[in-house]
Every structure is written in C-alpha cells, then in structure tokens.
C-alpha cells in the first residue's frame, strides 16, 4: 500500500517512528543535563558541610577531603544544631506553613468555585481584580502590612506570620480554571437531587480537584517554608523565628565558616526535598489539570 507520493506507508511510518525516537532521546538528554546541573550545587553543599572546616577552601577544589571518605565529619551539623533553637524553628516553620497551606486551599478553592459556578453581578470584574494582585510586588506591601499587624498586636505571633500569607491570587486562578473545565451536567444533576451550593463544592468538586489541591498545596507549603522577608520583618523574638530567619541569624555568627553555613543550608532545605520526592507526581498531575498547558 502506497501514499499519494508513491512512497510505501510502512516506509513513512518507519521514518516517523525514527524521528519521534530521536526527539525522545534528545529531550531525555537535555533533561539529564539539566538535572545534573541542578544536582551539582546540592551535592557540593552536602560535601562541603561534611568536610573539615580547614579543607573547605583548599585550592584546587576537591570533592573528597584529604584522608579519603573517612575524613568526612558531622561536626558542622552538630555545631549548627547546638548553636540555636533549630528544633523550635522547625516547629514554627512546620506549624505556620501547614496552617497557611490549609487556609490557602480552603479560601482559593471557595473563591475559584464561586467565580466559576456561582452567577452574580460583577463576577468578571472581581476575577480581574484578583488577577491584578499577581502583578503587585509583595515587597511594596511590607510596610503597610507590618503597620496593620502592629496595630492588631500580632507582631511576634503566629497570627502575624500567617495572615498576610494566605492571600493567593494564583491559587484562585488555578482553581477557577480547573472548575471551568468540569461539565455542567454534574452540577445540574446535583441541584435536581436537592444539593446545596456548598454540598456540591465539598462533595463533588473538591474530590475531582485532588490533583490541583495537591499541586497548589505543595507549592504553597514550599513558598511559605522558604519565605524569609516577611517572617524576618514581623518576628524579633528568637523563639518565634522560622527556619530561614533562624538559620540566617545563626549564620551571621559563623563568619566565613563555610562548612557550618552549608550544613545549616542543608538542614533548612531537607524537609522541602523530602516533600518534593514524595509528591512530585501530584505536582505534575496538578499542573496538567489546571488548563495552563498552553
């Protein structure tokens, strides 16, 4: 069997298969190189943290210290753990990040559902006003937010850390995009059965939105865990510091002790690495389900 150009279809299929295979291998190679480039600094931070301080600035740079693998030491990690209230900072970061994540998921999913499924006057205007929040640099809000938290008596409190971080225009946009893609027949059938708006949202829409919930939740948790500027501004009490602020405070006392600095960076980022390793599939599925693929 031949095509219009007189070329056998099996030949065309073979060429297409080879071309697709070549593109797949090319994409794999690019991703492999990108992964290596991303892993090298991480690996270097771990190696430097495990080196004796006297060998962190040797020239030429070496991955293995003098004396071989046996020369690696956990002295820098013990130094960091004993220099400050690391466990307290871990608790503060875990508590605030978890509360922020839960609040963001609840508020943004409700807002996205309302903007997508509840007809009301001015809905489009409200949506675009929320989206306009994406172009506002968060840095210019620090002073008015601090004045507000100070007036409320929330400086050096968990409320002061949490409340300004629960506004997420991007989360509203993602949930709205997802809810827009759900067939209206599901909602109409539930309304016929006597379900309320909230019951439709909670028992039908939210179970369908699990990939989006996972993606938005993970991104929110990571961003809140890594947030340095706002906790640094609103917290002055050492016991209320989060991991980024606490480690930065401890690092200032190290001078140029590179092993201690790298050890604190590794300890601060370790929970996020664990979260990513366990939930990377949910992140990909969530992004693919939001309608942001282009």
Automatic annotation (TrEMBL):
The keyword Ribonucleoprotein does not apply. It is found in: Cell membrane. It comes from Rubrobacter taiwanensis. The lineage of its organism: Bacteria, Bacillati, Actinomycetota, Rubrobacteria, Rubrobacterales. Belongs to the binding-protein-dependent transport system permease family. It is a multi-pass membrane protein. This is Carbohydrate ABC transporter permease. Its main location: membrane. Gene3D superfamilies: MetI-like. Keywords: Cell membrane, Membrane, Transmembrane, Transmembrane helix, Transport. GO terms for biological process: transmembrane transport. GO terms for cellular component: plasma membrane. The chain crosses the membrane at residues 22-47, 89-113, 125-146, 158-179, 261-279. PANTHER family: ABC TRANSPORTER PERMEASE PROTEIN MG189-RELATED, ABC TRANSPORTER PERMEASE PROTEIN MG189-RELATED-RELATED.
